[in-house]
Protein 1
Amino acid sequence: MEDLSDQLPHRHRDAADRSGVLTKRSGEELLNSLTTLRADLAAVIARLQERVGGVRIIGRVRELFLEQRDATGLALQLGGFDRSIIEETEFPEEGEGQTPVLATLPGHPAHEDYLVAHDAQRFSDWIGNDAEHLATRVFHKRDQRLFIANVNRLPAEETLGVDLIYHHVNRDSFILVQYKKMGQVGAGRSEWGYRPDGDLDGQLKRMREVEEACTRLEQDPPTDYRFVHHPCWIKFCKSEQVAPKGDALIGGMYLAREHVEWLRGRPGLAVGPNGGELFGYHTVPRYLDNTTFTQLVQDGWIGTRGRASDIIQAQIKASLDGSRALVFAGLIGDDATQAERTRERRGGSGS
């Protein structure tokens, strides 16, 4: 403590000698002096500051990690699992290499003994072993198991974004969610919006091809009713400068592929103040949020109908070949009833 006091500028030396809340300047000087004396504490102090003020998203490595973290949390939520574990993920330090979200979680991954052997092998075959960054984990509750994999073949700087593929094994149904970042736009940069880039047309074309393949593979007649039986969705999400607190998902808008294309063909919709294309809260009249999208998937109102497993492997390859990171989730086991899920959402109440 004497060394610390001596290291401080004279007018701030009482910061090392008294208790209580320090002024902002005294606090900064104290931390600077502490890390000057003990350089090894800098990383510890940075982690503590991030717990209080949130993790700053600087650089492509953390941007991609945040999207992958969100997709992993969304996969847990779609399966009806507690997503709070993503609060314990550790963001990579600036300048570090890419790390899968699942690799930073505490504890040890569950063994594949928890999975039906056939499905475990199938998931492994679908994903392959040639990814540079790969981490898998199994979560389980009651008679359900949720297999999640974080996969990326390219460095963060060469990766265009994140795809989530969610497969419900018992329904043989799947959903594809592609992430698109919204930036701050408008006067004073007070609004959020996505301006279509050169990749969007190609990605929408790929989505149409996926949906046409799914239509050809549907059971005839379908055995399960859907509001939307096409799998492809885009999540337009905020380009956060600070990671959401706790286990919160990134705010954003979910739009089906056909809805995106419909909006692009309607004058006055998805158009920004200067006349260019813009997907944002103020230009898209209706969209699904995290809560609504999750509930519709959980209750089986959204997703393909039948023989999804015939095309998922191709979609995994297409995501990775398209320079995108992938979060794949496979849910195994019978669903809870809608009444049981409603009680869970209400905290166990029987009303």
Protein 2
Amino acid sequence: MPASRTISRRRLAAVAALPLLAVVVTSCGYGSDAEQADQKDDKAAPAAAGKALSADTVKIGYFPNLTHATALVGIEEGLFQKELGGTKVAPSTFNAGPSEIEALNAGSIDIGFIGPSPAINGYTQTKGQSLRIIGGSASGGVKLVVNPAKIKTLDDLKGKKIATPQLGNTQDVAFLNWIAEKGWKVDAQSGKGDVSVVRTDNKITPDAYKSGSIDGAWVPEPTASKLVSEGAKELLNESDLWPDKQFVITNIIVSQKFLGEHPDVVEAVLRGSVKTNEWINANEDQAKASANEALKKLSGKALPPEILDPAWQSIQIINDPLAATLQAEADHAVKAGLLEKPDLKGIYDLRPLNKVLRAAGRPEVADAGLGVK
């Protein structure tokens, strides 16, 4: 696993996605605050000068989230378009993983930035026929934040009410796994036990915290930093629970059909991703401002500095999909009783990315035995 330059001194890690599959409601969007597509922009960006590749247009989907900074910045700064030449970029944004997977399956998008959970669901539910994971994008950005008047140590969580975004989503499974490792008991479905796990949409978690109906939350950014800005205290960063303080939060996926028909376009998008990540890590302040400007255009509202700055610092922008962590995350869901063990072999095709990395003189990345043969 190559060392990637982090956008912060702290290598904070994100919660990795746990598959929901048939046991858990699949409307849960990994790292998402909504359950349906929020915005869509089918207008292609003006193409750069040059000849189009094998496709006139490539349709790219992503979330208006900081954990999708590669897409936000790469499109905002025209870095993808530069690599694609005369092939136009047509961006679409989503706020839920299942909606993006549906769009990929329907051909409404060709390539997407997405969390591992919906990627796993999309792969397994179509018996490995719909998509491949072709690269990484981000690690980090999930924290346990608590009311410091009620909780001072991790042991104080026993008997308290802690929010997660949704039953079976990645933060929920990560918290259930942490509880089990403490030796405490919680019924995964109801959330009742030694700790009360309260499934609460990220959009209303701050209000629930202010009202006192929850004592803390295991949540992704920027919800965690919003809670801290309102008086909560960070008690644990999930990165501390993982080897090398890294695990996947955002992947790049592609339709298998598009990959087969337009490998040159896929390779160009991956070049754009690698170059965008390099620019982000080399130009932190400019990249942060660019991502926030993109969020403002997409959602109508930029993040204030007291939320943007700590949230940005907790995310690593990387090329490596951290494939070795994917099976571990799935195992956590199986252990929690939320998932039957999936067969993930073939979910990755990292050959195009490794070709790009070799050309750039960078170390290749591994598929942990889960790649195509």
Protein 3
Amino acid sequence: MKRTLALFSLGLGIALFNPLPIAVSQVTPQPAAPPSQVTPALKLVDIGTNCKPARACLGWDEQLFLGHGSLKRDRQSLLKSIDNSLSYLNTPKAIAAYNNYPIKEITIDRVRRSLKRFRQLVATAKSPTQLQASVKREFAFYKSVGDDNQGRVKFTAYYAPIYQASRTRTAQYKYPIYRLPADFEQWPKPHPTRVELEGVNGLLGNKSRLNGLEMFWLRDRFQAYMIHIQGSAKLNLTDGTQTSVGFVRGTDYPWTSVGRLLFQDGKLSKEELNMPGIIRYFQKNPKSMDNYLPRWERFIFFKETKGEPATGSISVPLVPERSIATDKSIMPPGALAVINATFPYPERGKKLVQRRVSRFVLDQDTGSAIKGPGRVDYFLGYGDLAGDRAGITVTTGSIYYLLLK
């Protein structure tokens, strides 16, 4: 989502470890990737062909064919995501990115041919076993070296919330989100901080230099803040219509985790470091938002997208559970990958259970908190269920990029 935002479970501090395209970040920050890496981010590996049982092996993506619980099979979603990446690869932006890509054998032509062949396999496969076998036979696997040079990758998740909002300020709807100032490119650095732009309580109003640039008003300050973290949102308006907003630009400040700050100050225990815990804390202590929210100094500007889907940093729509965000300075944009990790899935009712999955995804986004080969942010979709899942997603696993041999 061109996320000025940080990951949903990451940004708020849900992760003990770290939208933008969401707001739960690590308690123990990871070191930033060095500006020029000595070791390539991806390493060609032999995954073998004798893994049994098949469902426990890399590339067993049963949701394409069977679905799971309340989640329907999503073969069409994967095909759509592949098509989105293919569209991107035909742009000058993609050509420029791959001209500078550090791993020389990973070229734009090879990525394009790989996506086209994989699309054929997905469209014609009769079972997860058949697709898995075809991919292992025809594709080379490039594994991320991870944050430990052994392939360990930290996964978080993000989503696009759905909120009630108003086009005009009222006594109930009083927390604004803003469009980009026309003179933003001329703003001197350091940029104004969040406090300078919206005030300690988020209600600076006509005293703000952003006065007149308000787009929509939210009822809840934390909801407005979450839109900054996520980078996009769908809005149900008071006049009965629906629309959406998406990230345009952000001021030049790093990510700061509210959840980490709450934990460090003893406001939350380790067990409470999740999105529900953070929300409960602010509901019980609303004035604390004046202390904690402004400490993420970056400020995000939006545009109205009129119901269009959330868009990634490569300017294509994000597809729930098929799009990921990585560090685009080292990972191949638009490319096909398979992730292997544990994520929360809905079972009966609203219960979420952890399930190990191996899913095919497309690398279509980035985020200010997603740095280095050991970080992946997973797009889970829209609304409350996606938010509940994203809010507790902090896990380790592995990621492999797939290219035709």
Protein 4
Amino acid sequence: MTEIAPASLADLTTLRTGAAPERMLDATTTDELVEALRDTWSRGDEWFVLGGGSNLFVGDEPFEGTVIRILTTGIERLPSPHPGRVRLRIQAGHNWDDLVAYTVDHGLAGIEAMSGIPGTVGAAPVQNVGAYGQEIQETLVEVDLIDESTGEVQTVPASELGLGFRTSVLKHHYGGAPIRRAVILSVTLDLAEVGEAGRPIGGEQLRRALGIDDDERVSLAHVRERIRATRAAKGMLLNPDDPDTASAGSFFQNLIVPETVAAQLPPECPRWPVEPDLDAATVIPLESFDGYVPPAKTTRPDVKVSAAWLIENSGIRKGFRLPRSRAGISTKHALALTNRGGATAGELAELARYIQARVHSEFGLLLQPEPVLVGVEL
């Protein structure tokens, strides 16, 4: 590891806020990353790790602790136990979109719809990144991580990460600590070998984004090209010449609410059913079986509700700013809070609180922030 002169976090995060921390370490190999974390934990420092800086909202006051920059890169190709598939082990600091480009170039399917998502590979499982109907949990096999409580490196299967809608046991939720304080060192994915030829697209959400029919066949390269173009049109593809991309992507999460709550919203509010987890079978001990099989329990699925629609229909439009503020909503997407040039974290937080209050007043729902907040309260 290398201790460097701390840089301003405004220069290392896409929301462009934050002063220089007290201490900063660079880790370019897994061994250096493990050493940096163990050293920081032994000192009792406050700490956080920094990858691409695209999912952090950092406060204006200097962070009184250590920031560890994860700069590890590399892709290792491994055999898969499943015919027609291949596994990739990727270092945590590897750029996510560079990984997607690699998979597309090598004819590997499974993450192409997540093209253009900023950040690093190690951050992807933490919030179970997804886009256009694909989520990393569909291809994630395992991660190598190091636990703060023990300092030990472990290989943890995806099934033990508590993956859900934009969450995992590793995620810092607003107002609380993660269930498991650990740092991912590498990620292993299992992908389908499909080559360069066109193939049917299974997900309706992705087909709509691509503008194709159910039976139309398209290549991975076509999917990647169209998705990146779509993200660019929404200001969600990083571009230093586009101020709408000075954001943390979607600042608020789409809400997951009971069907009864969704039914009270205006019918034009976009919503998508979230399939409940169902038990595969009902087990009745033989000694207690009396010939009666109870009917299966039926539950109405929860519903995912569009946060962007709620914002716009609470009277807040794209491009909105509070008076004399340098923070504003993207002119292209209502979910992105942007730094229009020199905005402080305080200005962005004020805008976020205003949006939350308007949506809550209009619809009775409280929007939750998606980025990790460091030294900021909403």
